[in-house]
Amino acid sequence: MTSSFEALLPSTERALLHRVATAQVEGRTPSLVGAVARDGRLRWQGGRSCVDGQVPDADTQYRIGSITKPFTAVLVMRLRDEGLLDLGDALEKHLPGTGVGDVTVAQLLGHSAGLAAESPSPWWERTPGTLRPELADVLGERPLLHPQGRRHHYSNTGYTLLGSLVEAVRGVPWEEALKAEILEPLGLRRTSPQPVAPHAGGWAVHPWADVLLPEPAEDLGLMAPAGQLWSTAEDLCRFALFLAEGDDRVLSAETVREMRTPAVPSEAGEWGSGYGLGLQLVRGDGRTLVGHCGSLPGFVAGMWVSVEDGVAAVALANATSGPAPGAVAADLVRIVADAEPRIPEPWRPLPEADPALLELTGPWYWGTYSYGLRVVADGGVELSPLRGPGRASHFRAQDKGTWIGLDGYYAGETLRVVRREDGTVSHVDLGSFVFTREPYEPGGAVPGGVDAEGWRGL
């Protein structure tokens, strides 16, 4: 992503600036910066400050708190993709001696391991990490509060364990792996464990008076993988677009799609939100946002991307509470996506026609339910109901004559073509379901057979 702007419409830019300015005033924060990216480019940035002549821009560092967690999750997923661990592995297999070794890597990523949310006293965000030199100091005497895998319970200590897992498997410090495997390949030159000028200072704003108090900026030590990083609005926009599209230098599009998939059910009453593998998921106004929010004393941050709209937005502020940058960033996405809808790419025919694939297109019947099968790019197919609701899925081509489901009910299921001895197509098998060219086709391979007398009236 380059810093050169492709300007939005003046009316859109004014709406974005109004949202940022309003958030800075209503949130009573010393400064606030917002940025929007689309199609690989930073399209807009805007900042407000209580100090004349010191307005932050998209290159100003703020502390991002728990937005550090998606970075740690990406490092873990890289280890999985390299075959160095499995998401179903118990922590003990790679990081022995923690006392919670039965929890799995996937449970830690999705906050379903049952671990406590915080480290024992003193308040870890405002005290130096040297007070917690060992994992036992981070976990405390009662690290598990809930049964494993049964519920979502947000856990900073869980991401401390994941950071230590990365170090144990990779054999280098978490910060070194982060720089070599994410920051440098993606060009995130202004993201770092420690602040690098220009950066904002952290402040607390009195809840009942317009006065300030400086907040400490502690090195979190072992808990760094849960919330240590400093970054800029531009870098985080770039990272958000990566979480939508993937980058084979870091993670494939398929793996970031996996990260965006809900890992466990949401809490009761929170059906509009969820959590994937290191990513928060929010659904509202017909739009799904993927990203994360973060806070540490003196700072709050929000980063979201709408994959469908191709719009990413970030909001960063230097106050302990007040401006709700997650809501601000979500509004920045909405403003751009609604005011300037994405222009679709032109329709283009496939580069070549595969007769064997074309033979499979058209209507198919699962019992009496009618489905249509279409060929898409790269030899993939789509299967969807011809009328009404039903189980629609996209499939990626595998070995000759088979496809793997990517989403919906048939995610992970295999679609295969079954041919007769003479080579003609008999039916399509999808996870044991038989699809035939006619509903209950006479003589077809329908489980249980078809009544020999055929269709009849009363």
TrEMBL record:
Q: Could you tell me one molecular function GO term of this UniProt entry?
A: hydrolase activity
Q: Does the record's keyword annotation contain Hydrolase?
A: yes
UniProt keyword terms in alphabetical order? Hydrolase
The domain of life for this entry's organism is: Bacteria
Pfam families, per the entry: Beta-lactamase, DUF7586
Q: Which InterPro entries match?
A: AmpC-like (IPR050491), Beta-lactam-related (IPR001466), Beta-lactam/transpept-like (IPR012338), DUF7586 (IPR056008)
Domain DUF7586, by residue range, is 354-437
Where's the Beta-lactamase-related domain? 21-337
PANTHER family per record: D-ALANYL-D-ALANINE CARBOXYPEPTIDASE (PTHR46825:SF7), D-ALANYL-D-ALANINE-CARBOXYPEPTIDASE/ENDOPEPTIDASE AMPH (PTHR46825)
User: What name goes with this protein?
Assistant: Class A beta-lactamase-related serine hydrolase
